[in-house]
Amino acid sequence: MSEKDEEQLHASERIDGMYENWFLEYASYVILERAVPAIEDGFKPVQRRILHAMKEMDDGRFNKVANIIGQTMQYHPHGDASIGDAMIGLGQKDLLIETQGNWGDLRTGDNAAAPRYIEARLSKFALDVVFNPQTTEWQLSYDGRKREPVTFPVKFPLLLAQGVEGIAVGLSTRILPHNFCEILQASIDLLKNKKVNLLPDFPTGGMADFTDYNEGRRGGKVRVRASIEEYDKKTLVIKDIPFGTTTNSLIDSILKANDKGKIKVKKVVDNTAKDIEILVSLAAGQSPDITKDALYAFTDCEVSISPNTCIILEDKPHFIGVNELLHINTEQTVELLRKELEIKHQELLEKILFSSLEKIFIENRIYRDIEEAETWEEVLSRIDKGLNPFKKEFYREITEDDLVRLTEIKIKRISKYDSFKADELMKRLQEDLEQTKYDLEHIREFAIKYFKGLLDKYGKGRERKTLIKNFDTISANVVAATNEKLYVNRKDGFIGYGLKKDEFVTECSDIDDVIVFRADGKCVVTRISDKVFVGKDIIHVDIFRKNDERRVYNMIYMDGKTGRSMVKRFQVLAVTRDKEYDLTKGNAGSKVHYFTANPNAEAEIIKVYLSGRSRAKIKEFDFDFSSLDIKGRTAQGNILTKYPIRKIVKIAEGESTMGGLEIWYDNFVGTLNTDERGQYLGKFEGEDQLLAIYKDGSYEIKSYELTNKFDPDSIVLLEKYDARKPITAVYYDGGSKNYMVKRFNIETSSMDRKFSFITDARSSKLLLATTMKQPQVEMTYRKDGQKKHEQQIMDLDVMVDIKGWKALGNQLTQHKVKDIKLIDDNSAMPTDNSAKEGAEDGSDVSSGDEVVWEMNSKKGKTKEQLGLFNK
Fold it and tell me: Is 739 a catalytic residue?
């Protein structure tokens, strides 16, 4: 190798080493100094420098943000834009900075005004928990001219309250915001050795499913949904939006889904002002419930957030859970409080010491002994000598600085010295010292008191905004709008929505799967498209619904090897897309004679005509498919006949062999299901219906379609509708201020329409609703002028006759009601369910304690359900 080549090789190695070092240094800088927050105070460097600059400028008045940015640039060498953006982010979180002017809107995505137009100052909360120069560790700023905090001594889990996002080199962090009050309560619980489970709370509200939150660790997931309500039968209203979205981005996603045909809406109107209000007008014939699910499935009305709790701990990034982070922050707060108490303890000792020295110096007239001293050293010596008899009482030795301080006492103070006031001051200082010692010895109890103080002082108005719920899984195929039409060319073997000249099959969506059965006994499931070849001689084609256990196929085929005709009933529950499945024995020459698809497991009766040339004595016979068991698609079937078949004719439509559809109601997510989750509603078939009674005092007749959804928080009673069973209701009439009871039969027949059966006064409220035949209640009441409450059993079916649903009913009592309980007609004992009254004047019928509606979840139990609730 030549010298030149060797030099080039060494130069290349040096450059490689330089790049390696530079990259590591850059990565370390980005992680530690820009993207990932420190666990000690929860701040990124730019945020810490903004607050430090604001503290330096703080005089109680608002400062222009432009001035604050300029002050921060003395510490942060990255330009005004990055500082301004970080400050806007802090201000919008409404915790550490008080804002004035247009700071933008997280909900709509509107930008803040220019920094010269808006103002800010530190909040009282920030001044209370963030700053303490005595416990702050300091370092020089980037140019060495100033000093700045390494971290702030924050006495609060600030990182969890604010949340943070950051992308560094090779890692990222995403800590979701949590509720202020819940953080403080969780810290208190930790100090009491209780288990905690902290869940996020988003400033935009909405609903969230934290089932897979996994304490905010990597791999966790949070599903967040907008709050969508039914404004009327043709309009939905969105009142809260998911975290991370804006009203503009949400509306854009709805319009895009509409353009793609996933949903069908006429228009979207944004009425957002103080509160979010987005009106979604539905297209003609669209179901509000189905459209609501479609909005969750195809738009930003539901988003999935992946948390990743990464923090800087001991100058290294660590991935931990939020509960562990809370524990670290809580213990850190305890230690900071301990340091502050120790500093206070030392300061009190010094105050007591000097007050004692001052008292001795003045009352023993030591100041007169120094009048004849000729030198400074002699002055200090005479004072020291005068203090000698008392030095044993002091907690430390008397220093020269202490003697100098005594010489600085002014004559005016000596002349007006009040011994009594001095003793009172000493007494207060001593009491403070004893309390400080006690707090140090009971530091965890002191920390609990500190957190409770923060909760009382700053917790008002910071209640949870995000509703915690369990979401059902929405099948996109079920809720997708029918934006296409399925056609089939049976002979040539093509299907698709582009074959408009061929046979129309059904309405569909462009994300549906299609199942195809052919005459050769093969079936295949494929994704719908414009035109796709699936094999010639198609005998049946339809939309494929995975795991549809009600759909049963009846088939007769001839086995190509034996010539026998086989009969089978089977289901196709789950398949691999675009894979052919053989429904016969798989022998060459096999052929399907007869095929039907039955959505509710119907089993028809057929007549089989054998070939006239066959040796069979009986050339025709009937066959009932209900005699066969339902099996899987791989089953080969039973022998129908060994003779050739001439034709098969259906002679009678069959009934379902599965009986009625057994339905349950999942009162956690508000959906109907056949998976035995929640309350058993019964078997439904034909024209059966559901009865729903709501907390607002209305009822509604609904179908038993599994796509129907209910709000669990508004449902009082949900059961299979029986027109013969009267409804008994107890309600409070806000107009007359009376408790009323009524019994009525449902006279309306309109489906999916609510009818109110209580008065429309503002404070009217439903207390109790049941379909028991002979309902009894136990009423606790108090007569006028008496303090003692009395109880009475009342037969509601005896008190009031059955009338129309619009009737007011009869007055239940004239006394002040405290409690009403329904008595189970089977046990004649009061149930745990009750409607309680908090106010003694009878104007308020709720105690504020939630009364739980216990739904029957066991099949075969009594069909009567009791619904009770608080206000």
Answer: no
